[in-house]
Amino acid sequence: MNLSPTSSAGDIIEHLRAQRSQENLAGMARFGIATETALGLSNVELRRIARLVKTDHPRALELWRSGIREARILAAFTAEPKKLMLDDARRWAADCNSWEVVDTVADVFITARFDQVLIPEFAADTREFVRRIAFAMIATAAVHLKKEPDAHLLAWLPLIERHAEDERNFVKKAVNWALRQIGKRNAACHGPALALADKLAQSSSRAARWIGKDAVRELSSNKVLARLGLTDAGADRAQR
């Protein structure tokens, strides 16, 4: 089937089903991707399809409602963030059952500029993947919102500290990701993020210690210090 910007959600789903790969599904499962509704298409292939079909917001919502892993990722790739409603974002979050879908929709939510509303809301939610979205959004914002004042990113550090004791794997890794991305944003953000990482590394909580030690290791690396124009002495001062 030849896909185009006029292809319907049904056309796209039919195409996805025709590309099903059992071998790829096994590989996805090894990376912790939920495969119950998956067809086994790679994200590279989904990006290619997204370029063919272009953006179409109503169609993206329909693709999401299908429940199919690939269709939901395509929904995120082809939605129009400015047309996404908060209630739709909340429904998408509630539907997430895999870390990779979470990380994909987090990008859409940041582009839609739902950060101030949804990050604290989702962080307070006890569901593992909903909470993960909050910290995936912070990580995404730190990288992609180039013009955002640093103070807005640093304001999320107390939220990172508050949830650093969450032992659940997909939350813990997202909290760590958010902290590292803030610290790597620029020299101004590096010091406060590294100071928090050092504090967490001394925590009595196993999850917080892991988050802190891992973040300290990366933020203190020569590669990061060189990219940010920091010396070892400057990094030492940032930790004090």
Describe the structure.
- The chain is built from 16 helices and no strands.
- The protein has 240 residues and is mainly α.
- Helix 4 runs antiparallel to helix 5 (69-78) and helix 13 runs antiparallel to helix 14 (206-219).
Task: Name its key features.
240 residues; single chain; elongated; mainly alpha; 71% helix
Order of helices and strands: HHHHHHHHHHHHHHHH
Categorize the overall geometry.
Answer: elongated
Computed structural class: mainly alpha
Mean pLDDT: 94
Rg, please? 19 Å
Give the topology, please.
Elements: H1 9-18, H2 22-30, H3 43-53, H4 57-65, H5 69-78, H6 86-95, H7 99-111, H8 115-124, H9 128-144, H10 150-154, H11 157-162, H12 169-185, H13 187-201, H14 206-219, H15 222-228, H16 232-239
Helix pairs in contact: 1-4, 3-5, 4-5, 5-7, 7-9, 8-9, 9-12, 12-13, 12-14, 13-14, 13-16
